[in-house]
Records
---
Amino acid sequence: MSIADNLKQYKSEVESDGVKLIAVSKTQTTEAILEAYSAGQRVFGENHVQEMVDKHSQLPQDIEWHMIGHLQSNKVKYIAPFVNLIHGVDSLKLLQEINKQAAKNKRVIDCLLQVYIADEDTKFGLGHDEIIELLRSDEYAEFKNIRIVGLMAIATNTKNEKQIAIEFHELKVFFDGLKVSFFRKDDHFKALSTGMSSDYKIAIEEGSTMVRIGSAIFGKRITKHFKADVSAN
Ligand SMILES: *Cc1c(COP(=O)(O)O)cnc(C)c1O
């Protein structure tokens, strides 16, 4: 199966459930991304700032770029002019910097708070109480240039589908609670970014509204880092 074939299959499958497909293009070449683009995909996810900046400059301008990786505060400025959605916001400090850089660019940047749901030490994210504390803080109330549009999470990397389903289910319950407590009058708070190649079906069953699928579309990632094609500049 080609990238175009994979893309069309996943896109129609998840969109038939009303779910948005983020094609995770980290480490993939611009040619591979263009193949997915030509097959109709406009939303791509990257996890390194420099790589996303390079690809944004080289690829069609109607692509929506989503930052799905861990984002360092000092790098926000590079993506603030164009990023469409930042999935992994996991601190008030980072949110503060996104707000500042968005203001400089006269934009409002959509963000998802990353919730820690996995039974592992290695995943970034906030606990439920930390999220509530953030949403109650005076600092958060002052932010004019960010908009929290939902939550993002990564489930435990396990073959135990029941465990994954429980993690996503508990996240959905938490999400619904936040909606009532903090976003009752805010129609923008509606995104639940969960599910990757291995667990997107479970994620959708448990309320995902956007799935982040990489290897199932593009094939296994071989190179570790995308190299900018300098000849294209
Ligand atoms: C790489 C990555 C994905 C995609 O993973 P696949 O297994 O290739 O589908 C999804 N979400 C995040 C946060 C990632 O870093």
Note: The radius of gyration is 17 Å.
---
Amino acid sequence: MTRIAEKINKVKDVINSTCARIGRDASRIKFVVVTKSVEIDTIKEVIGLGITELGENRVQQLKKVSAQVDEILKREGDNSPLPKKVNWHMIGHLQRNKVRGILGLTSMIHSVDTLRLAEEINSSAEKMDLCPHILLQVNTSEEPQKYGVPVGASMHLAEQIETLSNLKLAGLMTMAPLTHNKDVIRACFVRARELFIEIQGEKIVGPNFTELSMGMSSDYQIAIEEGATILRIGSAIFSG
Ligand SMILES: *Cc1c(COP(=O)(O)O)cnc(C)c1O
């Protein structure tokens, strides 16, 4: 088994064992493999291991790598063991003038944090006849330099986004601060889960508001414990 395969199995093991311990259904947890700055041959290897959810945090890189992967999948043809298609998640900050360039390429945009950005995605999506899935990124750590809507403004923004007819608001995304203090990390994830449940309870969102994207290489176990449905994992698979 290759090193990458071992590390992916390790992540799957942690997901399964954590879910078993706390009584969650592991099949409700999806992990996105974050490929930023990873060589294309390595990405191909990941896809060959059956991973179909991939993430990038920069528009330029997402465009480049998704085109390369499309090319590979096309070249491989019908008898290939590779999956026919992969799903790209845009997980990083998105500028309004870059929206059109990635809209047709992504299956989910995790980083919507202003009404202006949501409106831009909505109007571009309308022109392109698309209904993209988006997540509202919430700044649960309340660090001023972090992207994301403040917790206190999230409910209102979710309501406003719900009025935009070409968007499918699928849930929330958050990032914990870079710290070894597990209590601080957990507090962010708890805040996100409480907000998630509160928004669901207000009935401003539809039945498709089901995703809670939180947890990275260093904190995904805590995220699972606090209710994450989508993990975004890079370095635990590619570094070291
Ligand atoms: C890079 C990145 C990740 C993955 O981080 P790792 O620590 O490498 O697992 C997750 N989410 C976002 C938004 C990122 O930019």
Note: The CA atoms of residues 159 and 203 lie 10 Å apart.
